[in-house]
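Working notes for the structural subgroup meeting. M.R. asked for a predicted model of this chain before we commit to crystallization trials. I am recording the input and output together here so anyone reviewing the notebook later can reproduce the run.

Input as submitted:
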Amino acid sequence: MRETGFEATTLKISVRDNEQLSFERQVKKLSRPTNLVAELVPSAMALFKKHYRWHKPIRSLGIRGADLVSEGSVYQISMFDDEKRRISGSIWSAARTGYGADTDITAFSASCSWART
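Returned structure, recorded in token form:
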């Protein structure tokens, strides 16, 4: 999504167990449009924990964004959102994209006190 300039307003998960039985669930409206992994994964895990009963081992878990909007589109913000964390997440994503997923960016995070929230 990030490479094409889109953000998701809906999050969907698909779960398949070891007997090939599967189901899908979704969160219709995220708190705001996003393409940041740090914002999508906690929502996906909460949705997973809410709906999976842990009676069988998991074979696969899929996460995808839907109802895409253009990155930077207008939306109403909450006065409780942590915008510094969001900026930090996009900087980390940009560093990993530019230098590779295995890049050690510890020095970068140490130089940005607000990145460690």
